[in-house]
Amino acid sequence: MRKYATVLAVYRNQYKLFYRNKIFFCQIAGRFFSKEKRSPVVVGDVVEIDENNLIVSVKARKNLLGRKSKHNIYHQQVLFANIDLLAIVSSVKQPSFKFQFIDRMLVLARYFNIEPMIVINKIDLANSRFTLPDLYKDLGINVFYICANTGQGIDEFKKGILKKKTAIVGQSGVGKTSIINRIIPELNLKTSEVHKQTGKGKHTTTVAEMFHIKGGGFIVDSQGIKSIGLMYIDNNELAKYFIEFRKFLPYCQFANCSHIHEPNCAIKKAVEQGKIAKSRYRSYVMIYYNK
Length: 291
What we know:
By secondary structure, the protein is α/β, with parallel strands linked by helices. It contains seven helices and 13 strands. Helix 1 crosses helix 7.
C-alpha cells in the first residue's frame, strides 16, 4: 500500500519523513536523479512511498524557495517547497534592526508567491525610542513583537502559524532557533551566541529542516538566508514586488523607467510627497544595484 508523507529533512543518502504523527527515514528511487533535475526532493515536498519504502513520486509544488546553484548558474537549487508563510525575523539589537533585510525578504516572498509576516525578536532590549513604523501593517503584513528568551508574544505568534507550513528566515543571531525552541520545547536545538563587539551571530543550522508543531503545522529552520540572492528578478520587474509602488507605475513618463535616474518618475514623486516611505525606496535602490 502506497502512502504520502511530508519531507522534513534531506541528507546525502536518505530522507526524513513525517506520516500520521510518526517520523521515519527512507531512500529515493534512482530514476529521480538526472542532470536536468537538480532538486528532485526537497524539504516541504509531499512524496509518495511504495511498499519497499522508496520515494517513487513527488506531488506538484505550489511554490518553492530557491537560489541559483553554486555549480551551474543556469540551474536553480531549491531549498524548500510548499511553504504557506515566510516568517522574516529581525531583532531590536544584537544584531541591530535592518529595514533593508526585511524589504529584501519581502521581495523574495512576493516573487515565490509565499505570504510574508514579520517577527521582531528581543523586544526586551528595546528602549522607548524603538518603534516600527506602521508602514508594514499598512501593506497588509502581520507583524509580531516577541522575546524568545522570556516567551513574550510567542503564544500569539504560534497561533498565527498553526495549521501552516512556515519557513523562518533571518540573519544569524536574530534568534530563529530560540523561537523554534519556544514553539517546540522538546527539540532543544542548539542556539548561537552573539559576538559582543560585532553584534553578529554564527550560523548553527547547516541544513534546512522542518519540524512538526503540536496542534498542527510545520516550521522550517533554514540555513543562513543571506546567501540567497535576487539575481533571477529582472530589474524591469523589481518595482512590482514593492506592492505600494504598483498604483504609481502607470504614471511614469517612460515605460522602462528605473525609478532612479529618469525625469517625471511617478515613484520618485510619490516618495517626495510622503506617499511611499523613504526607507522602502532606499531598499528598492539597494536591491536594484545589489541583487
